[in-house]
Amino acid sequence: MDGLTHPLQLSRGSIRGNLILAPMAGYTDRAFRTIAADCGADFAFTEMVSAEAVKRGNAKTIRLAMPAPGEVSAERIAYGIQIFTGDAVSAAAAVTALAPTHPALFDINCGCSVPKILKSGSGARLLQEPKKIGDIVRAMTESSPIPVSVKLRLGWDSHEITYLKAADEAAAAGACLITLHPRTRAQGFGGRADWSHIKILKERLGALPVIGSGDLFSPEDALRLLTETGCDGVMFARGAIGNPFIFEDTRLLLEGRPQASPRPADIRLHTALRHLGLLMSYKPEPIAAREMRKHFARYAAGLDHAAALRRAANVAASLREYELIVDHYLAGELTE
Ligand SMILES: Cc1cc2nc3c(=O)[nH]c(=O)nc-3n(C[C@H](O)[C@H](O)[C@H](O)COP(=O)(O)O)c2cc1C
């Protein structure tokens, strides 16, 4: 299994490894990205941010695009900013505004199917206009020296499969990396991701790095995706929520080293507490505690009495309350 973990050479610059945390709206904020990096992720994307909102100077949106402590250092840059837009001028303005935060990449979302996003001509709507993807990439590469990548789905629906055309346009315009989640917009998250398209895309693009996304729920999935398709890296999404350990475990498997055992309850729950502490470093405690509920449920998933843990967390309003829940649970006192 030689050489399955490696840096990604881009036409401009490089990324230090190929185990990547996906952009996930409502999830991949600074806290989650820090936890993922501590657990072995090489690189992470922000949640998607609106180029139009950045252009207008919306402070909340700009905060979403900020790096976590340690993501940008002299030695390495470990984060990329994903934007959504249907307009090349706004894309260029967003890149100019956000370049001083020094992401390693600006990524363009061409997969989101939320109605509001589609209506604005962005997200998966761009799959119906591959030329526009090229225009947006070009405008961004001309606005800053920071490399630009594109994240695609297969197409609008099974009658309109456009990813190859979209990737060609993006590559011709100077994109330095393409990610493919091989489902159509119409599929949402249903059915299975069809990895054969990742292989086709990699063969088509040659030296241009291709990252595979879709149904990566275990280290074995990542190994299979890399070996079956020849893609350059793997992007974990749902499989990393509540299980950031998937990055370490995948690295061990890909490097042929002894596997880590499943993390016991105390490690899972103490990681959840640390996650909450990180959220609280930049959000008021009650908001952080509320946002933590969805993550906590996933850290608890699969543990004995997970439902009791979830119920307790659903009314927790502070770090102290979460700590008490975890202490009670680990003492065997939380079973109902
Ligand atoms: C909650 C959630 C939010 C997501 N948000 C984004 C997003 O902001 N931008 C994006 O390109 N993809 C987004 N995705 C898609 C993921 O990045 C990924 O491509 C997809 O989940 C497939 O991977 P998986 O099957 O391993 O989860 C999101 C997925 C989930 C589950």
Mind explaining what this structure looks like?
With 336 residues, this protein is of the alpha/beta class. The chain has two domains: 8-254, TIM Barrel (Alpha-Beta Barrel), CATH 3.20.20; 265-330, Non-ribosomal Peptide Synthetase Peptidyl Carrier Protein, Chain A (Orthogonal Bundle), CATH 1.10.1200. The chain has 14 helices and 13 strands. The chain has helices at 30-38, 51-55, 59-64, 88-98, 115-119, 130-143, 163-172, 196-205, 219-229, 246-254, 265-280, 285-300, 306-313, 319-330; strands at 8-9, 14-15, 19-21, 43-45, 49-50, 79-84, 105-110, 148-153, 155-157, 160-161, 177-181, 210-213, 233-236. The strands form three sheets. The chain has an eight-stranded parallel beta barrel, surrounded by seven helices. A two-stranded antiparallel ribbon has the order 1-2. A two-stranded antiparallel ribbon has the order 9-10. The longest helix is centred in the last third of the chain and has 16 residues, at 265-280. It starts with 7 loop residues before the first strand and ends in a 6-residue tail after the last helix.
Question: Layout of helices and strands, plus pairs?
Answer:
Blueprint: E1 8-9, E2 14-15, E3 19-21, H1 30-38, E4 43-45, E5 49-50, H2 51-55, H3 59-64, E6 79-84, H4 88-98, E7 105-110, H5 115-119, H6 130-143, E8 148-153, E9 155-157, E10 160-161, H7 163-172, E11 177-181, H8 196-205, E12 210-213, H9 219-229, E13 233-236, H10 246-254, H11 265-280, H12 285-300, H13 306-313, H14 319-330
Parallel strand pairs: 3-4, 3-13, 4-6, 5-6, 6-7, 7-8, 8-11, 11-12, 12-13
Antiparallel strand pairs: 1-2, 9-10
The structure holds flavin mononucleotide.
Flavin mononucleotide is lined by residues 22-27, 47-48, 82, 109, 111-112, 151, 181, 193, 213-216, 237-239.
